[in-house]
Amino acid sequence: MKIMISGAAVLTMEQGSALIPDGEIIIEGQYITHVGPAGSVSPEQNFDRVIDARGMLAMPGFVNCHTHASMTLLRGYADDLPLMEWLQKKIWPVEERLEPEDIYWGAMLSCLEMIRSGTTTFADMYFHMDEVARAVEKAGMRASLSQGLIGLSPGAGEALSNSRRFIREWHGQAEGRITTMLGPHAPYTCPPDFLARVLDMADELKVGIHIHIAETRAEIEEIQQKYGKTPVALMEQVGLFNFPVLAAHCVHLTDEDIRILVARGAGIAHNPESNMKLASGIAPVTRLLAAGALVGLGTDGAASNNNLDMMEEMRSAALLQKVATMDPMALPAQDALAMATVNGARVLGLKDVGPLKPGNKADIILVNLDRPHFYPRHNLMAHLVYAARASDVETVIIDGRLVMENRQVLTLDEERIYYEVQKRAEKLVGAVRS
Ligand SMILES: CSC[C@H]1O[C@@H](n2cnc3c(O)ncnc32)[C@H](O)[C@@H]1O
Ligand SMILES: [Zn+2]
What we know:
Bound molecules: ligand LTUXU72L, zinc ion
Keywords: Hydrolase, Metal-binding, Zinc
Organism: Desulfofundulus australicus DSM 11792
Largest sheet: 9 strands, mixed
Structural class: alpha/beta
Pfam family, one: Amidohydro_1
Family: Belongs to the metallo-dependent hydrolases superfamily. MTA/SAH deaminase family.
CATH superfamily of the largest domain: Metal-dependent hydrolases
């Protein structure tokens, strides 16, 4: 399939975030083969599709660096609680009852919500990940998937073996849109001896590790009390950072923790809305970026956010750093936008995903600029971070394929998803409450 997008303002998000006011993009198969100003494509070329994108902004799709897709099933089920109480009293008891089909439909709802808000790639950690992989394949999204592992649970050994099978079966599937990692949940659920087994497997399979680290004060106190170290220092001691790491949260960090994360090249997924809602704290993003850390943005699951909207997440990230540091220049729009897109792709180790340039995968969204909140046009990047909303995303292309056009999702049956999710959520929560 050869597609041309013409007439759009193109925000390439290449170094310096170049904006082409009236641009042309060519997509051939999965890849971008041309990005240039109007008139740069020779008129003799033939295309299967020409998308007239006048009045639109073309930009890289959002990369949600940390979520639990199927937790859309539990959206609004447990709110206004701190993390440990939320997990132990509300979430884990329901998760024990989840059937594979529940996970599939929760992930389908999540894909629908993400596509409709311009997310093209997400990183997921959960149970029954074959079902999430099936949903990703069907939706046409790109994803980095990790089977969640609770080292303290009786079934941890079996879950680890199942991770090996999952990685062997799914890594590189869906025309390469699916990649995989190992997913030990957190230092407080995965003790060092279990993590050692996870690292042996990472070495065997040559995959990275997705883990929650330093999310709450309670975690810091528990790990300090058990091991006499911070969670990051403990992870350094067990050898975690000898592998590519996707570290979710990183809220409570010492200067030494930041030094370790930067020196070891860890990717960090910042989740501002989940951290606010669970009152976990404010991640030191400004300090991390100043130190040279690689930081992407995530929503966390829909049970602690409560949506998967990366536009909103960008705005929250920028505003939160300003208020935390009392500095209005903290996390400017351009940096928030980079975190939500191209830097997110780097955090997930996706080498040919990110900036709109020839040779990169065609993961492109078209944002409708014909809206009151996008006028006047002083600064489009500021508009995207401080004024845009998810419904401004008009069209989504992933891996060179149209998955949403004029707000119609082409790969998914919305009505069926709503029906299945409502039915399953009622069964699950009703069962726990009764
Ligand atoms: C082992 S699968 C993933 C596991 O993580 C739980 N979870 C969801 N959100 C968070 C969070 O913010 N911190 C820690 N754990 C979280 C989820 O419910 C699954 O049990
Ligand atoms: Zn999480």
